[in-house]
Each structure stands twice: as C-alpha cells, then as structure tokens.
Amino acid sequence: QGAGFSQSTLSAKAPGTLKAAQTTQSAAATSTGSLPTFGTQFHGMWSSYTDSKRAMVLDKLKANGVTTVRLDVSWAMLQPTSASFDNWGTDFVTRVLKMITDHGMDPMVMIWMTPSWVTGSSDSRIPPKGSAQLGQWETFLSQAAARFPQVKTWEVWNEPNHNDFMRGADPTVYAQVLASGYRGIKAGNPQARVVFAGTQFVDVPWIKKALAAGAAGKYDIMGVHPYMAVGNLSPNSPDDGTIWRMRHIPALRTAMLNAGEDKPMWFTEFGWRVGSIGSANWQLGVSQATQAKYLAETLRIVKTEWPYVTRVFWYRELADNNTTNSSGYGLITPKGTVKPALAQIPAIYAAG
After folding, report:
1. Does residue 199 belong to any structural domain of this protein?
2. Does the pLDDT of residue 94 top 60, yes or no?
3. What's the CATH code of the domain at 346?
C-alpha cells in the first residue's frame, strides 16, 4: 500500500497499555462547536487508477460534500535516480493535483518513500538519516513546496511509529525527518503548513518521545490515525488507557499541551471496514449501515468535545475488487455506487 492502515503486528489481543489519560472528559458533553472539515484519502497516484476512474471518484466525492483529499506522493518517484526532478513523475503529480483543484478540492500531500540513490537501499521505507541524507530530504522538499504551490499542506511521512511504513519506527529518527522536512517546506513555500505524520493509532508514548527528541515546534498540525484496534467497536467506546481507542485523543491533547504545543489536530486517516476479513480483533468489520453510523458519531464527538480537531480524512475513498484489508474501508464501490457513510455527509454538514 502507498498509505494506510497496516495491522500486521496486531494479535487478537492488542498488547500494551498506557497510563490513563491525565484529563477527564464528560461523556455527555454539552458544548456545541463546529464540524471539522471533511476529507478522504485519494490514492490517485496508484497504478490501479486511470484518468476516467480518477474523474469518477473525484466527481462522487465532490458531489457528496468532500472538500479536501489526502494524496500520497513518493519522493522516489519524483527524484528516482538523482536530485533532479523526473519529468514523467513531475508531470504525473501535476496532472493529478490539477484534477483535484479543478474539482474545487484542497489537496494535502503526504510525502514519503526515500529513493535508493539517497540511502543505497532499494527499500524506500527506510527514512533518510544523518546530515547528508537529511540535507537531501530538506532540499527536495524545499523544491517540491515551491514547484507545487497549489499544495497548501504537507504531511511528512506516514505512520512512522510502525515498521511497515518507516523502518525502525524510531521516534528520534522521525523527529529529524520532520524537522528537516519542516525547514525545507517552509523555505520553498512559507505559507505552507506542515503536518506531523499520523501515527497508527493514538500512540501517545511514541509521539511524546518524538516531541522530546526535537519534533516540537517543527510542525503546524498534529496528525493521528485513531483507528479502533477491535475493528467493529464504536468510536464512542470509552478510553481504556490504551492507544487502541479513539477516545484516547484527549490524552494526546494533554501530551501536546504539556510539551507547549497548543496546535490543531487532524485525523489524517480514520475509518471502519465493511465486512470482516478474519476473526482476530483487528480483522472485524461492520455493515454499511454501521459504517455510516460510526462516521456520523465521530463527527458528532469531534464537534461537541474536541474543538482542536479541525479536519478529518476518512480512509479510504474507493473499494476495489479484492479482499485486502483496506478495500472494505472504501466509501465508493468499484462500480461507482456511493455507500451510505458518504451519502449522508451533505445532510450532516447542512445541519451544522
């Protein structure tokens, strides 16, 4: 996968617990806030997409209230052999971005994947390390941010707390990747915003380590992927002190404030799968009706209890014809039918 949810390390019982959140929160919150901006993942760079399929999906998303999409883009594709931009890759990104902006949507780019000429390895999920490689990363991002001014927001890597996505999953290494990326993006486009990569689950201990290692002050928005490790649980399930519940979000907010980081938070991925792919906790799915219910519940919780969460991206936009883990998350079927979860969005946002 280019981005998204990988639970290869999860067992039927999610291991590990965290200290209970230091803040308490009323389950019956009475405050009324604003709904977060609603977006979805858009894997528009993937080889499974054709231009006609891109147009179909963007049409459906736009017609159903989606105003922003998260596009995963590879450094290794833009600069595959040297520090020069590849014409094919650059033109491809430019074309897909134009399709997004022509639909009136705001693209957020999640940038990752190191080219082999930087690390000497064909494994693009090895992050840049050391002053030379980090300098190449910083230079690349300064050039990319200047080259693609239509991108107002850049998310630096994907789920870096998981070895599937950033080899080693080292928070100290990520702090350097983020800091270098931040400097580069701001040099290339001072108005651009930088997002701390969404962690797989609400991984407060890992994020705290990254902040302490130099990530603090090197981002504008905190990203997080608050999936439920028991895949059919409601987002309203009580916080049990672990990273596996959406209601652990206030613990992340507390950790940020304790680090002096009073910044917005975005769910750069969240979602529920239609249909189970096994019997392990993380493999459990829901019905289309329950998927819609859980999405609406998430928006209600964010609106009434978490005003600092200002944007959410559902993972993912399109179900494909296979039984992979991520397919069932799609809001649009392979034939172009909009699932109830997406179809309800205009009414939810019209009601405010």
Report:
1. yes
2. yes
3. 3.20.20.80
